[in-house]
Amino acid sequence: MRIQVASDLHHELAVSNSAMAARLEHADDAVDVLVLAGDIHNQTGAIDLYADYPVPVVYVCGNHEFYGTEMLQLLPELRRRAVGTSVKLLEKDELILNNVRFLGCTMWTDYHAFPLCLNTAMEYARNHMLDHQRIRESNNGRFEPEDAAEEQRAALEFLVRKIREPFPGKTVVITHHAPSARSIHQHEQNNPLVPAFASNLEFLASEADLWIHGHIHLSSDYRLGNCRVICNPRGYPGRRNRSNPALAYENAQFDARKVIDV
């Protein structure tokens, strides 16, 4: 199977840039599926934009999809809007296409990751991550780091159970948050917000064939055991890349036509 991969397209922020507001082009006729690993558009925007895409679009939400809304209310609406479209929304869900098993969820973090201790990491994220100001919980309170950790536990339980079910084909995991610190570039390793971007799921990643994620606005491609880990984010529009100031988006390594075989 040939899979086109992208994340963090942030169409919702591209109001003054028509090229970035437009949906990603189909890379070529040989591509079987497009995987979008979160932070594609605010709320239901990604489903509306990719509804009639020429191949199936396997999609997980990022953190930005939930900005300005209540998470538990938005998910049912996303599922409803996706019915009858090209978009296959995965949130603790499984999808099998052509003998390839896709397992997907946002997969928030547990805040156990480096470089801070758990309580310090949570408090820092509470005060510095916009997630905890712009996402609401069902009681109209803020979506707190403790809520993210609880969501991560539920997602991890799903992934552990499903990934260990016998399956004759390939297994592709799609999350927004990263499964390993190896996705964090060296110059960011000591950033106190690292625990809000990655968990240590290396023990699980090694049981999949491919793990696609987003959230970190720098590209990566490495292996955890037999599993290939891919991140191909575009990043924020208007935030110029120092290595290429002419770019209209953040990540100079973003490949709009990145295709991998599994």
UniProtKB/TrEMBL annotation:
Top-level taxon of the source organism: Bacteria
Annotated ranges, domain Calcineurin-like phosphoesterase: 1-217
Gene3D superfamilies: 3.60.21.10
InterPro entries assigned to the protein according to its UniProt record, in alphabetical order: Calcineurin-like_PHP (IPR004843), Metallo-depent_PP-like (IPR029052)
GO MF term set: hydrolase activity
Classification via PANTHER family: SER/THR PROTEIN PHOSPHATASE SUPERFAMILY (AFU_ORTHOLOGUE AFUA_1G14840) (PTHR37844), SER_THR PROTEIN PHOSPHATASE SUPERFAMILY (AFU_ORTHOLOGUE AFUA_1G14840) (PTHR37844:SF2)
Designated name of the protein: Phosphoesterase
Organism listed in the record: Burkholderia pseudomallei (strain K96243)
